[in-house]
## 1
Amino acid sequence: MSTRQIQLDSGGQLHHFISIEGLSREILTDILDTAENFATVGTRQVKKVPLLRGKTIVNLFFEPSTRTRTTFELAAKRLSADVLNLNISTSATSKGESLLDMLHNLEAMHCDMFVVRHNQSGAAHFIAEHVAPHISVINAGDGSHAHPTQAMLDMFTIRRHKPDFTSLRVAIIGDIKHSRVARSQIHALNILGVPEVRVIGPQTLIPPEASHLGVHIYHSLEAGLQDVDVVLTLRLQRERMEGALLPSEAEFFARFGLTEAKLKLAKPDAIVMHPGPINRGVEIDSAVADGPQSVILEQVTNGIAVRMAVMSMVLGRPPQSGEESR
Ligand code: CP
């Protein structure tokens, strides 16, 4: 079954959230609008709404994570769900239990949602195909394939600063080849109507299929940054690189590192983003990461509201009018 087929129910509503690709502009806009409703929950004295009370959500992270795991946990708790964080290194999979046997045991505990990060592309899709029909699966990053909630929190952050997607020029810089974030960002930007998406990087880090994704390819940072509204920087995914794709990190920084001087080529009000973790002095200079145009920490904050939106939507409980403010 295709990912599009698997993630929508018979009424066209999200049941799983595996990939941005194939979703409609209406669904993406619905996620952004729903997240907007949740954005103030974290600033209240009581940071909770009762929407997912009685639901049980399991975080299954087979790869390291700081931002994604903790913001999924906070989002679930702010929706009043019960959260289990499975420690994969001490779970029975380390004793040879198969992934599917582990999932069926969690199903037997009447869990309602699995949030999955895995180093294999396609892992979240595979799990969604094999779980009981009442369980929703959210992809928290699978190999170099997709990281849909990261892309949606990026779109949310962009929209807060630049409300009209249809007038934007957006540049994504660095290791596009290994980046699940870049793939999901490109799909989201295209679906939301951004007319010009640029990818900038050395030839070895731009995948051949990029030209089919409707992006403009640049191998010069100076040329690619001209007059852009949004600059999306990426980490070099060393753990996914096979062979020598780069001479050295120092050379990468010299050619593709975002410095204050290079940022001046973008529009004066351009915003700078990064999904984290940041490697300072490799893809971005500290003066830019901590500078006035950086919205990197806003992205982290916005991740909670966006994940609340996605979790409430896949479990069929988006807030009704006024409900999020209770
Ligand atoms: N952006 C992101 O996925 O960060 P983590 O690896 O810390 O979750």
Note: Residues 148-300 form a domain with the Rossmann fold fold (CATH 3.40.50.1370).
## 2
Amino acid sequence: MSEDHFKKVIAHAKEYGFIFPSSEIYDGLGAVYDYGQCGSELKNNIKQFWWSAMVRLNENIVGIDSAIFMHPTIWKASGHVDAFNDPLIDNKDSKKRYRADVLIEEFREKINQKIGKEIEKAAKKFGDAFDETQFRQTNPNVLRNQEKIDELTARFVKALENSDMAELRNIIVENEIVCPISGTSNWTDVRQFNLMFETKLGSVSEDAASIFLRPETAQGIFVNYLNVQKTGRMKIPFGIAQIGKAFRNEIVARQFIFRMREFEQMEMQFFVRPGSEMEWFAYWKDKRLTWHKALGLGEQNYRYHDHDKLAHYANAATDIEFNFPFGFKELEGIHSRTDFDLSQHQNFSGKKIQYFDPEMNESYVPYVVETSIGLDRTFLAILSTSYKEEQLENDTRIVLSIPPALAPIKAAILPLLKKDGLPEIARQIMKTLSVDFNCQYEEKDTIGKRYRRQDAIGTPFCITVDHQTIEDQTVTLRERDSMKQERIHIEKLGSVIDNKVNMNKLLASLI
Ligand code: GAP
């Protein structure tokens, strides 16, 4: 996928009611977006697929919906007040601001891509006889580049661990990493920047308390651990899931809905016995990748990426990365958070947060394995992979091959003409099908144009009502991806559509 492809996806998303820039009539607001009539349907369907996979398919996982505003001490306890920082650096010539860690990571990825190209070339040359492991161990170019990566990584991780901003700058300067806009390495110092938004709670400013907009939904789960465990009589291991808004004052937010200042997370905290966390970490890594792959966006588009530097709360962490139009980037994080959060809340609140394990006959603070996926990033993964420009015999078409179960509209009902009783029959079909599916009725323009409009929003089926319908109650059913048309009886429509769009089929593939 290319930059050009990405631009087209963004333009398409706006033109067809998926995503609009926020406050557009006031020239927009940086890195904030609104979801339109098609976008909000797709988003709701993604949420439903995630929620059902978590809460419905796992008898030991329940869901909650906690408030965005929380007691300010929560963010002190969680470490966000002191440590939720990004290192930022400015280029003095372009006046553009960057995350220092991202500049270094992108530089490292470029070296990695050089290795990839070398391997690809050799694989073509040697065919079946090619042994990648041996090639990696012996090819001088690969070895030299791998050594560069290893050295860079060791230095980078150390700098992050020590919060050594001067060293981060040295790495950038010494490796001649330049600003992509100005092409120069005229950099400022690196500074730490806290990402939380602060606001006031209360009406009179002197009395008002400073609070934060939550930068993750997870803390709403931790502070409700006791409530849910007791009222739900939950036994360890068990999980609490939540979908909700999170807010981060991102320094660099230039990739459409990939990095927003207001976004949605779908998080699940799984509470386990201390010592069993690595087993559960491996379990959830596998489970989550299976969930992603069930969407059918292409298995080659996913990969794991183990963290070089662990967050202050974690003893293991992996990202599931997706091949976005701008390369492989984080889509979901899976973290083993130890007992850090619950212990911190225990200390800061003075309330005992423990679990009595009847099998072990002892009390402990549970360990936590977290799965945390960005809803907007999942949306972008689906949209950018589904967008296709197809060359037909005498025409071209733009089609969104969205997984049918997630498509905003499942079927469009189209009377061939606006007369002869065809609209009345079409409206009746619409009424019946709308009970089970999100449908759209359209009678304007030629049938060809109407098909194109439905292709462009990813509608899996178009149903055309014509004069033959009056005679034998059959309609033309057109399928989005193959464009195949078949004549079927009105009474069969429901089951044929259901067979393709029912989300339960996706869910069944997960068990
Ligand atoms: N509770 C753990 C946590 O918040 P994270 O890796 O910072 O971990 C989890 O965030 C997921 O949230 C990411 O994998 C990403 O999909 C999404 N996310 C994070 N920041 C985002 C942003 N600024 N815009 C859109 N999605 C974001």
Note: The mean pLDDT is 95.
## 3
Amino acid sequence: MRLGILISGRGSNFEAIANSISRGKLDAEIAIVIANKPGAGGLVIARERGIPAKVIPSRGLDREQYDKLLIDELRAHDVELVCLAGFMRLLSANFVKAFPDRVLNIHPSLLPAFPGLDGQKQALDYGVKIAGCTVHFVDEFLDSGPIVLQAAVPVLDDDTVESLSARILAQEHATYSSAIQLIAENRLVIEGRKVRILPENPSA
Ligand code: GRF
């Protein structure tokens, strides 16, 4: 399964996906990494690992114009699944239609709690005892599509945004690859808001 990974920054989720592939835990290949910001740290990781990467700057373009560029680039690389990994832009309905049920996102909270920016800080400020991360299908709304997998992370009394974010990030890295592998194995059925996970095929 050919992946297109969209990033805006550090790129640790992208790197974790690349690691899962190289360790043989994920049956996929990264066809292209696209950053909307020239300074995205993930671009350095892609270069070091010899993974094709490209900057398509989003500055000054409206959503439809920008998403058209993204769609063309992803199609040119025969991308079958688009993975948003710290990609800080909302995608248009046309983008979502171009890859039906084939766009995933990772968010650092247990959705529907704490969508948007700084999910970890929102959780800490609210005083929840359990935080976590969510991998979900993407629709044109913010952090809102059907949920594939979630992982829970306890909030400790002395947690800071940094310490909690680090523990959530470790779960993000594992959870994202697991969700992608479920799609590679064709084991997800979307029924409205619900995503059913089919059992492993023993003969596969
Ligand atoms: C992660 O916390 C992800 O959940 C959120 O943005 C952050 C991206 O981190 N959407 P990285 O660029 O993958 O290191």
Note: The pocket of 5-O-phosphono-beta-D-ribofuranosylamine is lined by residues 7, 9-13, 85-86, 106-108, 169, 172 (CB under 6 Å).
